[in-house]
Amino acid sequence: MALLPPLLLLAACSGGAPHTGEGSPAPGKGGPSPSATGSPAGALDADPARLPRDRGAARALVAQVIADPVGFGPGVVRRTPYESDPETWPVLGADCVWHAEKLRASVLATLSRSYELPAEGDKGPVRLSAAVTVHRTADDARWDTAESLEETMRCPSQQLRPGERIGSMVSTGLLGGEDGPADYDDLLIEFGTFQSDELGGPHAYVWQQAQILQFTVAVTGKGAEGRSEKEISALLDQAQAGMLARLDAAVKKQS
Q1: How many CA atoms lie within 13 A of 205 on its CB side?
Q2: Are 199 and 117 in contact (CB under 8 A)?
């Protein structure tokens, strides 16, 4: 693992506090505060009055920010089901299998969408997704990113759903201001392999999540025959940059 931000290194190497999932550490377990790791105060100069403070405002912001299919590029279409249940939250179990649980108290709103770049010629379909989450605090959002790294270390192979698996996972992180698709406080990128009963494999797999203030913006690409990691990353970079730009416009201080 290279270029890991201090937040991610501290969370990974300290032994960490047990977490209840994405968000704050489990009550009473202690552990280091992400705000003490030297992470940037914020790449976005937000207007506090424009930041969502309740679930209604957070849901409205998520709907404004999250990508439509065109956000990934030409030819990308919706998959079915298109949107997740906004009252649930994905959790990686002790058995390294993902499942849905009730939305946690540390999250004001979250939504994910599923897309596809259809097969063309000798190239198979690329399965894509985007997720935008509004946490209650910036610390909750930072814990989200730190926990994602811990999950990869704990489960380098994971079952996404029946018939879909990822493996050989490697993580890398960037602090805000380094090379990336747009402004952010922290960016975590994971590369690995994707296999499915339908599409075979192994194929390229890429996931990346940007954290800025109390928000996390994530995108995923699952490859197929003839699809390179570089091609998938380009689709993800375009969608993530667009979402971060809309987030910036929605909460930035007005001149």
Answers
A1: 24
A2: no
Rounded Cα distance, 28 and 252, in Å: 35
pTM here is 0.82
Q: What is the pLDDT of residues 213-239, one digit of tens each?
A: 999 999 999 999 999 999 999 999 999
As given in the structure block, the two tokens for residue 52 are 């969502």
List, in sequence order, every beta strand (DSSP E) within the chain: 77-83, 88-92, 98-102, 107-117, 126-135, 158-161, 164-175, 186-196, 200-212, 215-222
Count the neighbouring beta carbons within 10 Å of the beta carbon of residue 41: 10
Q: What's the Cα-to-Cα distance from 108 to each of 45, 59, 71, 212, rounded to whole Å?
A: 21, 8, 24, 15
Q: What is the DSSP string of 142-210?
A: HHHHHHHHHHHHH-SSEEEETTEEEEEEEEEEEETTSSSSS--SEEEEEEEEEEETTTEEEEEEEEEEE
Measured in residues, the chain has a length of 255
